[in-house]
Structure formats: C-alpha cells, structure tokens
Amino acid sequence: MSSRGRKKAALYEKLQLLRSVTNSSAHSKTSIIVDATKYIEDLKQKVDRLNQDVATSQFSADQNPLPVVKVETLERGFLINVFSERNCPGLLVSILETFEELGLNVLDARVSCSDSFHLEAVGGENEGQQDSIDAQVVKQAVLQAIKNWSESSEQE
C-alpha cells in the first residue's frame, strides 16, 4: 500500500471514530465534520451551564453555611464540637447562653475564631439539676442557637 493509501485509510478511520463519538449518522466527510462541530458547541454550552451552576452553588454555600455540630456523651457531661469554615462573630455568646439555659457548666473549652470558627467544649451538668439531659437534646439546642444566631446576623 502506498503512502497516499495509508494516509487515506487513516483519515477514513479517524472520520469514523469522530462519527461514532459524536453520534453522527452522516456518511460524507463534510457532514461528519459539521455534526462534530455542532456536538462541540453543545458540549461548550453544557460546560458553561455547569460552571454557572457550580459558581451559584458555591456562592450560596459561601453566603450561608451553617456550622457543623457534633456532641458526644462523656462520663460526666458532653464533648461539644462546633465548626464553621468562616468566622462567626457573636456565635460563641449564643452557644454559651444555650449551655446556661441547659444547665451545663463549661468545664473546659478551646475556641478559635480568626478565619474560621471552632469550639471544643466539655460541658458538665449542674450538681443540683434534677432532669438528666442527653447528647441529642444538647445538639438540638446548639443547632437552634446557631439558627437563631444566623437569622439575627442576616438581619444586621
């Protein structure tokens, strides 16, 4: 087979591959290339829409991400972790007020609120408290405090 014949066979093979990738039913070279061009334009539009969707979802997530709350039961109290990727001015006060309402004493705490917010606190029940509370009650109360804080900080 001559060099020209090999090139022609390679071109034919590549056109058939392009035809299959683009789901074209065309048979002529020109029609296959036109279908491929349309296919590429459709893909560009889909990429643009997806990029817009991602940007929109990131913007809304950046605007209102609520902190993550984890509560574990300890022998005499609870380990409460609250984390947010953004700084949350005033949130610590809201959470500490909730601890007080629940009758929890803060026995130990570490807080970071420079670029992000992270609270790790050990809360113990007051000695004189008659009703025992569980981790789920503490978590729900902290989540409610975060929700109230979020709503009040949005209004400002």
Automatic annotation (TrEMBL):
**Which GO BP terms sit in this record?**
regulation of DNA-templated transcription
Pfam families in alphabetical order: bHLH-TF_ACT-like_plant (PF22754)
Q: Where in the cell is it found?
A: Nucleus
- Taking the record's annotation, the residue ranges forming a coiled coil are 33-60
Q: Which GO terms describe its molecular function?
A: DNA-binding transcription factor activity; sequence-specific DNA binding
Give the top-rank taxon of the lineage listed in the UniProt record for this protein.
Eukaryota
Residue ranges occupied by any ACT domain in the UniProt entry: 80-156
Q: What is this protein called?
A: ACT domain-containing protein
Organism in which the protein naturally occurs: Vitis vinifera
